[in-house]
Amino acid sequence: MRRGLYRLTSPEAYAVGMQRWLCLWVLAVAASAGAQAVGTQDSQKCGGVLNPPEWTRSGVYSGLLGTRAITLGLDIQDTDSSRYFYVGRPLDLQLTAFHSGETLIFQEEVRRSLGSAPVVTGCFTLTRTDGGLRGSWKAPGAVKALKVSLEPLNVAKLPLKLPPSPGLQKLRISDPLAFVKLNRAWVVAADGQSVREPLSGLEYPRLPDASAALGAALQDRLLFNAVNALECASSLPEDSQGDGYNLHADVTLLTPRLISLRENTDYYCGGAHPDNSTVGLILDRVKGRPVPLLNLWPSLTSARLKALYLAASASDPASECDDVLRDMDNSFAVSLSSGGLTLTPDTLPHVVSACAESVVIPYGQLRRGANVGSPYFADLYSK
């Protein structure tokens, strides 16, 4: 998973990698659930033939299901990737598209428990009218149907309810439905030191005097995690909704020119076991941009980081962890603290993740290789 690790590249590189992992994981779960649920979809409890009618186009629609406001994302490229949510609620409900003549039919499917096949919980029957969608929603076995009225939603024209950060702008294009859900004012703590995204409940550090660029960078980190958290929650069955995605983020160093943060995330999205990750960030406090580690210490290649880590590790040479750490990739979550450079292995398999202890390399040990011409040198070393 769902779903900015600093590994001698950039936070964005980790974000892309994590998002790809989440997508692959969700696809795997969907494939597994689909294999278990062949009977469900073959029975076509809502009627019709697989695939939407030819007139449908991918897009976002908003309106009412009965008296409740909903937002629906229609995806014609993938018959089971459409979804909708009730406004103000965090979870997406998955839809599979069928058709009967020119009528669009959505089969709403929910998993009750891990390992179980999806069950049909609702049937949309929709026709195109004046550019919108009109019809009804009905639960299987119910006598009464609820009226549905949806209009196309031009997501590109929606006003921003958060500062216009790069991540928010990209989300508007890459996942319009998630953008609509998360484009809302966030809750600032009474002391001003943190902010909470209300749907996911995730919190993230905030600097009241931050530059606009730094504020945008911090907002995008919370946004990235919130997207992953909501995707994770939506992929869980009903009896596992107490699990999910938990984030603990802290500012580990704050100087006139630098800010470093550390994110510890643990999550369970319905796979074989829970998992966790550690993310390190080093940012320019004014520009909000990642500061490459090599700008601070040009000699700290990935191989050098591993050598420093192994030398500082308290692993027993006779233990299993010693072998694991010596064979691991040269990849670390890196952050700064008052005591030095913190390194945490970030590619260990889950079965040996307990071996990924953090170590701190004192700044004094690294001084000979520091970049004295860096504008950040004085923030780490006194003259």
Count of DSSP E strands? Answer: 18
Strand order in the largest sheet: 2-3-4-5-6-7-8-9
Q: Helical content, roughly?
A: 25-40%
- What is the rounded Rg? 24 Å
Could you characterize what this model shows?
It is a single chain. Among the domains are: 47-152, Lipocalin, CATH 2.40.128; 292-383, Actin, Chain A, domain 4. A hairpin with a 5-residue loop joins strand 10 and strand 11 (194-196). Strands 2-3-4-5-6-7-8-9 form an eight-stranded antiparallel barrel. Strands 10-11-12 form a three-stranded antiparallel β-sheet, with helices on one face. Strands 13-14-15 form a three-stranded antiparallel β-sheet, with helices on one face. The chain has helices at residues 11-36, 38-43, 166-174, 176-182, 212-235, 293-296, 302-312, 320-327, 363-366, 377-380, and strands at residues 49-50, 59-65, 68-74, 82-86, 93-100, 103-110, 119-129, 132-138, 146-152, 187-188, 194-196, 203-205, 245-254, 258-267, 275-284, 332-336, 340-345, 359-362. Helices cover 27% and strands 30% of the residues. With 383 residues, the chain is α+β, with helices and mostly antiparallel strands.
